[in-house]
Specification:
Layout (H helix, E strand, L loop, with lengths): L1 H8 L18 H4 L4 H25 L1 H12 L21 H15 L9 H20 L6 H25 L19 H8 L8 H5 L1 H11 L5 H41 L12 E4 L7 H7 L10 H15 L22 E4 L8 E3 L1 E5 L2 E4 L1 E4 L7 E13 L2 E12 L7 H6 L3 E4 L6 E4 L3 E5 L1 E3 L6 E4 L5 H14 L2
Antiparallel strand pairs: 1-2, 2-3, 4-5, 6-7, 6-11, 7-8, 8-9, 8-10, 9-13, 12-13
C-alpha cells in the first residue's frame, strides 16, 4: 500500500474510486472546471502564498509586521474593495477578502520585503505578481484570443518565478513543499475557458453568497426538524414578495418616466449644447457659489486658487474654439464675481460592459478629505492621470459646462527601476510646478486609485489590480507607450 501511495502521490491522486464515474452519460474529468474562489483566492493565495508572506515579514522584525498593518490602513479607499486596518493577525478569512488582500499586498510591502532585508521575501513578491496577473486574466468577463495568450504568458511567468523561489528557499529550515493540487490546477484554466466560456460560468462565488439567507432561514424560520418542507415554504414566500416588489418598481419607474416626459413637453426647452457627450451624472450638488466665494473658501490651500477666474475663462475659450462652437458675444469667455460653481460627484461608464465609477471630490467625506484620481483621454500620446481638486458646473451663454480643477501627475523620465519591472508597477510623480489646471468632465475615462510609494515621498503607483477594466487599460498604455 505504501508503494501504491508513493506512485499516486506524484500525480496528486488517492486510491479511491470516483463515485461520479457511476453516473451514466457523463465524464467527471470533463465536467470539472477551474474555480478561482477555492483554487486561487482561498486556496493558492490564502493557504499558501499568504502564509509564506507573513512568515517572511515576521522573520524581519516586529516593526516590519506593524509597518505592513499601518500601510494597509493608509491605502486609499475604493468602492468594491475591502479596506483593512490590519491584516498580519489574520489566520483565516473568506475568499473575497483574501482576493482583496492579494490585490494590495505588493503596494504595501515592497519597501519592507526588499532584496537587502529579505532576499527570499522579495522573490516571493516577484512570484505573487504573475499570480495576480494570471488571476486577472482568468477572471475577465469577456475574452479574445489575445487575452488568452497573454494569460498563458502570465501563467508561464508564474511557473518560472516559482522555480526561482524554490531555489532560493531550498536551504530554509522548513522549505515549503509545493506539490499540492492547487499549485497545479490553474494550468487547466485557459483550456476550460476555451471549452466552456469565461470563468464566471464556473465560479462558485455566487453560490457562496446564497449560504447566508439559507442559514438565517434555517435558524429563525424552522423548528430544526424535518426542515426541507419548511425551507421550501420560506423560499416560496420570498419569491412571491420579490415578484410583487418587482411589479411595484416597474410601475414606479413607468410613472416617473411619464412625469418627466410631461415636464419636458411643458417646458419646451431643449438641453443646451455643451462640450462633448453626456457620459456622466453630477450629484451631491452644493449651494450655488460665486467665483469670489470659491476663491475665499480655498485661500488657505497651497495654490490659494490664484488666477482661478482668468484661468477658467482661458480654458473654456480654448475648448470652445477647438470644438468650433460659437463664443458668447463673439469674445473670449470671462467670469466675474457672479459666476456660479458647485461641488459634485461624477459617475461614468467603462467599456465591454456598462459599469459605474463614483468619483469623490470633497474636503470632508466620512470624517476625512477625499479627492479621487481619474484617467483622462489625451488627444495624442498616453492617457493622463490627475487628482480631482474641485468639480463644478459653470454657465457659458446658454450652456452649462461641467469642469474640474485638477492636479496632474507625470510619468518619470528616468528608466524603470528593477523593482518596478519585477513587481509590475506603473509609477507617477507629482508635477513640480503645481499650477491650477482645468479639464472638461467629458474627457474622463474612468476613476483610478493612486497608492503612495511609502518609500519615496511624492511618488505614486497606479493601482492596476482594482478591476479588469483598469488592468487592461494599463496594459494598453504599457504596450503602446512603454509605460
Amino acid at each position: 500500500m505504501a508503494k501504491c501511495d508513493a506512485i499516486l502521490q506524484r500525480w496528486s491522486l488517492r486510491p479511491i474510486q470516483n463515485t461520479f464515474l457511476e453516473l451514466a452519460h457523463s465524464d467527471p474529468y470533463k465536467a470539472i472546471s477551474f474555480d478561482r474562489l477555492h483554487a486561487f483566492h482561498s486556496g493558492l493565495f490564502g493557504h499558501h502564498l499568504w502564509k509564506e508572506f507573513k512568515q517572511h515579514v515576521e522573520d524581519i522584525s516586529t516593526n516590519a509586521v506593524k509597518l505592513i498593518d499601518t500601510q494597509f490602513d493608509m491605502l486609499p479607499r475604493w468602492r468594491g474593495l475591502n479596506h483593512f486596518n490590519e491584516v498580519m493577525g489574520l489566520s483565516f478569512t473568506d475568499g473575497s477578502k483574501y482576493e482583496d488582500i492579494s490585490k494590495n499586498i505588493l503596494f504595501v510591502s515592497h519597501n519592507v520585503l526588499t532584496q537587502a532585508a529579505s532576499p527570499s521575501g522579495y522573490q516571493l513578491l516577484c512570484l505573487i505578481r504573475p499570480y495576480l496577473e494570471e488571476n486577472m486574466y482568468i477572471g475577465l468577463p469577456v475574452h479574445t484570443e489575445w487575452t488568452l495568450i497573454d494569460g498563458e504568458q502570465a501563467q508561464a511567468e508564474f511557473g518560472a518565478r516559482l522555480e526561482e523561489y524554490k531555489a532560493i528557499t531550498q536551504n530554509d529550515r522548513q522549505p515549503k513543499n509545493w506539490k499540492f493540487p492547487k499549485a497545479h490546477t490553474h494550468r487547466h484554466a485557459f483550456n476550460d475557458i476555451r471549452a466552456k466560456g469565461a470563468s464566471r460560468n464556473t465560479n462558485t462565488k455566487p453560490n457562496e453568497k446564497m449560504h447566508h439567507p439559507k442559514k438565517v432561514a434555517y435558524q429563525f424560520g424552522t423548528n430544526h426538524r424535518n426542515v426541507a418542507p419548511q425551507l421550501l415554504r420560506i423560499d416560496h414566500n420570498f419569491y412571491v414578495v420579490e415578484h410583487i416588489q418587482h411589479n411595484i418598481d416597474r410601475l414606479n419607474a413607468y410613472q416617473a418616466a411619464k412625469e418627466a416626459e410631461k415636464k419636458e413637453n411643458e417646458s419646451g426647452n431643449e438641453e443646451p449644447l455643451g462640450l462633448g457627450g453626456y457620459r456622466f451624472k453630477l450629484g451631491s450638488k452644493q449651494p450655488e457659489k460665486t467665483i469670489q466665494q470659491v476663491v475665499e473658501e480655498h485661500a488657505s490651500s497651497p495654490s490659494g486658487y490664484r488666477g482661478f477666474a482668468r484661468g477658467l475663462g482661458d480654458f473654456l475659450t480654448e475648448e470652445y474654439n477647438a470644438a468650433e462652437h460659437p463664443l458668447p458675444s463673439g469674445s473670449p469667455i470671462k467670469f466675474m464675481a457672479d459666476s456660479v460653481a458647485c461641488d459634485a460627484t461624477i459617475a461614468l461608464s467603462v467599456y465591454w460592459r456598462e459599469a459605474t465609477d463614483i468619483l469623490r471630490c470633497s474636503p470632508m467625506f466620512y470624517g476625512e478629505p477625499r479627492y479621487d484620481c481619474v484617467l483622462i483621454h489625451a488627444a495624442e500620446g498616453p492617457d493622463l492621470i490627475a487628482r480631482l481638486l474641485f468639480m463644478f458646473t459653470c454657465t457659458v451663454g446658454d450652456s452649462q459646462e461641467p469642469v474640474a480643477m485638477v492636479q496632474f501627475y507625470d510619468r518619470p523620465q528616468d528608466p524603470k527601476s528593477l523593482k518596478d519591472m519585477d513587481l509590475g508597477f506603473y509609477r507617477v510623480q507629482e508635477r513640480k510646478q503645481n499650477k491650477l489646471a482645468w479639464i472638461s468632465l467629458h474627457l474622463i475615462r474612468r476613476g483610478v486609485v493612486l497608492v503612495p510609494d511609502f518609500g519615496v515621498p511624492g511618488d505614486f503607483f497606479v493601482h492596476d489590480l482594482i478591476d479588469s477594466d483598469i488592468f487592461l487599460r494599463m496594459k494598453v498604455q504599457q504596450t503602446q507607450f512603454g509605460w
